Amino acid sequence: MRTMLRCSLEVNASNKALSEGRLPTIVGKLMELTKPEAAYFTADGGQRTMYIFFDMKDSSEIPPIGELMFSNFNARVEFQPVMNQEELQKGLMNIMK
Question: What local confidence, expressed as pLDDT, does residue 94 receive?
């Protein structure tokens, strides 16, 4: 299932990871785990925030991703099913039947 991961990093924890040189390594590990279709990085609500779009094949993928972010950044982690325009059209056509 196409999933959006929204991950907001606590400022002090992510500052520490950045100063220790761990931030790029951990984000790289996140990319390995998710193999994203797209990844965007921004500031949201005063925190470093990532929006990662990936195909979640099984809900068992949630703990490794979540724990990576929780334990390293005291992060707020949200998983949200999403769809692209083609999938939306397909869903709407199913309603019309």
Answer: 86
**How far is the CA of 72 from the CAs of 3, 47, 55, 86, 95, in angstroms?**
22, 15, 23, 36, 43
Question: What separation in angstroms does the CA of 1 have from each of 48, 50, 97?
Answer: 26, 19, 23
Q: What is the pLDDT of residues 28-69, one digit of tens each?
A: 999 999 999 999 999 999 999 999 999 999 999 999 999 999
SS3 state at 49: strand
| Residue 63, burial from CB neighbour count under 10 angstroms (0-12, 13-18, 19+) | exposed
Helix ranges (DSSP H) in the chain: 11-19, 23-34, 62-73, 85-96
